[in-house]
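Project standup — Tuesday

K.O.: blocked on the structure for the chain from last sprint. Re-posting the sequence here as requested.
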Amino acid sequence: MKVKVASEKDVRLVELVIALFDEFREHANTCMAAFDLSAAHAAALLRLDTPLSQRELADCLKYDASNITGIVDTLEQRGLVERQVDPADRRVRRLVVTDEGSRVLVHLRKCFEEASLVSRLGDDERAQLRALLTKAVGDRTNTSWAEMLRGRR
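H.V.: unblocked you, prediction finished:
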């Protein structure tokens, strides 16, 4: 199999994408730190805009189910989620976001959306970048993080 050697322009493009990703990661970490949330806790909370069982949450996040208990325990201790009996199957506990958890979610999503990643671009440049990224990413915008940030409203 013949491997295509990347041009210097392609290498620079990959470097820029990685730099953009790093900038967003730093911003996201700042947003999560404002609420004293780890990435795992934020991911779980962002996923719970509809009640899920712990198993369903683990599946959504692609985590091992054994890791979810500790994450949920912490969120519950902080008053952000609570375990409620599923009325359709009393053997199942659904994870439900509390009022405090909803407040944190609103602020967390808003913080993520305020990332300065594209603030240096004008409206036309943003539209152009959006079009190029849409073409590059295709239909893979339904990643778990993208879905969490959007919410399932």
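K.O.: great, moving the ticket to review. The two ends are 46 Å apart (CA to CA). The chain has a mean pLDDT of 86.
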